[in-house]
Amino acid sequence: MKLLLLLCLFVYSVHSQEYDDYSVVLPTSGDALGPRAHRPSSGFDRYSPNQPAPPPISGGSRYRGRPSTTSTDVTTEAQTKEVQPDAGGCTHLSERMGVLCPTGCELKSTILKQERNVKTAVSKLKDDVSELSQSSNTIYRYVDGLSNAFRERQRVSNENGNVVGQYTNDLEGQHAFVKDTIDTTFPSNIRVLQGVLQSLRDKIQKLETAIMSQRTKCDKPCTVSCPIPVVSGKECEDIFRRGGDSSEMYLIQPDSFFQPYKVYCDMTTEKGGWTMIQNRQDGSVDFGRRWDSYRAGFGNIASDTGKGFCHTPGEYWLGNDRISQLTKMGPTEVIIEMTDWSGAKVQAMYQQFTVQGESTGYVLSVGRYSGTAGDTLLQGANELVGENRTMTIHNGMMFSTYDRDNDKWIPGDSSKQCSREDGGGWWYNRCHSSNPNGRYYWGGPYTKDMAKHGTDDGIVWMNWKGSWYSLKAISMKIRPFFGGAR
Ligand SMILES: [Ca+2]
């Protein structure tokens, strides 16, 4: 634009110079030329008059006079000269006059007119440029924001890549560990477990074999298979006197009217000859039995432990009929030996011991106590006094089982049965100071909560261990009384 303006000013200057030169040459004739004829002075711009002109050249002309016809034509042409417009357009009215160059004024007007257009265009262009600049700024900021967002995304992407890489590394490590574990540890453990499993299978098979063996044995009642010594007699004292001096199972026949039966003979204690009528030692036999069972006897007389003879007694009750018969054959003494869970041993001996027959309820008669366990059968419980103690004396009592109430506790009242509450068959009064046929408790001390009916139903000998201690072992052996002298 500036270049265009400079170009226009240059053209204007050239035209002005040409015009001035032209004005000097041309005569100042007529008022048609207008105000350009003078320039009023002002200030120091004073008019200075022209210098006097030198005299013209005179003398003879080198030319001859012109022909007359040409002068006439010139006059005519001068007379018909047309007045040409001074402003507006670049062409004469007559085309033969050629093109008329614009005057400075016309050019200025044109330029001013164009300048307005140009200004308008420039103003619009400025607005456009400003708007474009704003748009450019907006776009720049937008692009800049996009760049920042891209860089942020790139950073986040890089960080995610790092995290993924780390996670991948960890995962690969774990995978390697798991694979190594599966490839090495698992097979080893599986082999160990397979060995354990095989061992367990072997044990189970052995147990099944043992169970089958026991089932086969239990299909028939337990019998003693060990050989019976040839020596026999009416009872153990008779056998002892016949030469049987080893403690083991023998066959006795007290009376020829009865069949011989097996019994364990103690040939060592107190000079031997003792017939065992009762034995408790391990709880292997249930003593909570009916009247008939106590009458006939139950349990295991003895067992073979592999030495070829039955030298070890089992838990058993010889039977009230047999006991009655043996004790009624003559004066009989009894020794009651007992052991607690610490291994301590005491005994109670009665030089008189008789059991009447079933018709009188197997009434017990004892007398002449001696020993270390304390006399319960004659004296009752030492810790009780008066009638309460009398109620615990067993001498003179009938035998009772849970299905035959012969005790002194409200006879006739089926709800008051010593045998039912104290666990065994015995010569209960109301009810006991000793209970050799009671329940077998492992360990010794027991409580009411452990007892079936809350009573002292253990293997009790009150005058040694009290009511709430169940003995580990107890046995009753009888022998014909002979005053200790053989
Ligand atoms: Ca009763």
From TrEMBL:
It comes from the Eukaryota. Residues 190-217 form a coiled coil. InterPro entries: FIB_ANG-like, Fibrinogen-like_C, Fibrinogen_a/b/g_C_1, Fibrinogen_a/b/g_C_dom, Fibrinogen_a/b/g_coil_dom, Fibrinogen_CS. Gene3D superfamilies: 1.20.5.50, Gamma Fibrinogen, chain A, domain 1. PROSITE patterns: FIBRINOGEN_C_1 (PS00514), FIBRINOGEN_C_2 (PS51406). Residues 29-89 are annotated as: Disordered. Residues 227-482 form the Fibrinogen C-terminal domain. Keywords: Blood coagulation, Coiled coil, Disulfide bond, Glycoprotein, Hemostasis, Secreted, Signal. One of its GO terms (cellular component) is fibrinogen complex. GO terms for biological process: blood coagulation, common pathway; fibrinolysis; platelet aggregation; positive regulation of heterotypic cell-cell adhesion; protein polymerization. It holds the Pfam family Fibrinogen_C. Heterohexamer; disulfide linked. Contains 2 sets of 3 non-identical chains (alpha, beta and gamma). The 2 heterotrimers are in head to head conformation with the N-termini in a small central domain. This is Fibrinogen beta chain.
